[in-house]
Amino acid sequence: MARGELVNAELKQGISELTKQWKALNTAYEDFARRKIEFAQEIARIWEQAKALDKDLGSEANQNHFREQLREIIQSDNKTILSKWVGIGTRAQEMLPFANSLPAQRDSLYAVSTAIEKKKPIQKWIDSGKLSSESTVREVVALTAAKRVKKNAASSQRNVSVSLQFSCTYQRAAELLSQLIAKEDVVVVKSERAFRSALAEAVGREVFSTLSEKVK
């Protein structure tokens, strides 16, 4: 008798149900960030509605009512939570395309919304593995807070001074340096008159005339 025939049918059914539950759990987890973003989007929409209503009435009755009800819904008295949900909701449309790659924690999503507002490279973070559904709140906040180092045009084109000494004649030194001096990166060449004369001979008077401004 094959071993499979000895396995209890009820046990098999239990394992089958367990498999379904696992798949459901994974699906729920993968979709959790998306559902939270959509929840935040609705919070932002209702909050804007409450503000518009109060503007017409000249009061904050609708905003205060919404705050109170939201505390009941999310079971928290933290005053900053509303602003975080609104922040996520305000950027919801820009966040939803990345939803499957975002962690589901509220503070992480808020950090991502802040990053989007600051024009941070979300897709680049995801592609490089810096941001994923497994990222912790601390990691996302650190990414958002990090400042991109911008190359300063002036510093990248700064002048670098290098002194060379040759154990040879001026003519030989001119021959060795003639091609280097012609490069755009070489700004100034300081030497004695004898070297300038030797360089003119090495490269020719016509070419030397194009270099004369940099050879001092």
Summary tags:
2 domains, mainly alpha, 65% helix, 216 residues
Present the secondary structure layout:
Elements: H1 9-57, H2 61-74, H3 79-90, H4 92-95, H5 106-117, H6 122-127, H7 137-145, H8 153-156, H9 170-181, H10 193-203, H11 205-211
Helix pairs in contact: 1-2, 1-3, 3-5, 5-7, 9-10, 10-11
Could you say which structural class the secondary elements and strand pairing correspond to? Answer: mainly alpha
The helix tally amounts to: 11
| Terminal CA distance | 99 Å
Sequence stretches where pLDDT stays below 50 over 5 or more residues: none
* Domain module count: 2
Beta percentage is: under 5%
Q: Could you report the average pLDDT, rounded to the nearest whole number?
A: 81
Shape: elongated
Helix content: 55-70%
State the order of secondary-structure elements, H for helix, E for strand.
HHHHHHHHHHH
Using the CA coordinates, give the radius of gyration.
Answer: 34 Å
Could you describe the largest sheet, including whether it forms a barrel? none
Number of extended strands = 0
